[in-house]
Amino acid sequence: MAPETAAFTALFALLITAVASQTPPTAYTNYTVGGPAGWFFNATNNISTTNYSSWAASQTFNLGDFLIFRTNSNQTVIQTYNLTTFNSCSFDDASDNDTVQYYGGDSNFNKPLVIPVPLTIKGPNYFFSDADDGVQCQRGMAFEIEVNTGLGLPPSLNQPPPPPYATPPDSDSSQTPPFTIPDETKKNGGFKSVANLRQDLFFFFMAVIPLLMSVR
After folding, report:
1. How far is CA 12 from CA 7, 18, 19, 22, 184, in A?
2. Is the N or the C terminus of the chain less surrounded, counting Cβ atoms within 10 Å?
3. How many CA atoms lie within 13 Å of 90's alpha carbon, on the beta-carbon side?
4. Is 19 in a helix, a strand, or coil?
5. Would you indicate the residue range of the signal peptide (predicted)?
6. What is the DSSP string of 145-178?
7. DSSP state of 91
């Protein structure tokens, strides 16, 4: 094969690979943080139950996707866009519009939780648990992701911060979330929201199902 032909073939293969790697997603995706390990801290060994940075590095995240934290009340979920806050493992000095505490402060330990977190801002997003005065974060409960544009934000999430809670779409569906649950309070330098989404959904469906049954 002539050198020119070989060079052209290599360049063509490189272009095909680049195009394939930039194929846009066809649906929004739900990611269970940590995979089967969930979002937990092993207090006996004083370390996170899995390497969350390695887990995050193996995924591709886009606007409108959800991170699903399967955890309990022994951990917290802090989302920030502030690298200084992330590195400090504390949101005490966070700005009003760059950090969210999705769960924290419950004295009822080992309470099961499923916390859905929508990805609404492109670029670096940082997550950590500030429980035990930041020890959990320092011992592995922290990770960084890069959020790409993907399909862009669905209408239910495309509004000014703080982003409201929303039911995550099915992982194999390109449909947008059907409804949202508004943010409730601001506190301690970061804006905070109701974390126990399952309870809200229960009362929602208890109210809606009779209405649906009455429609002929």
Report:
1. 9, 10, 11, 16, 53
2. C
3. 8
4. helix
5. 1-21
6. EEEE-TT---TTT-SSSSPPEEPPPPTT--PPPS
7. -
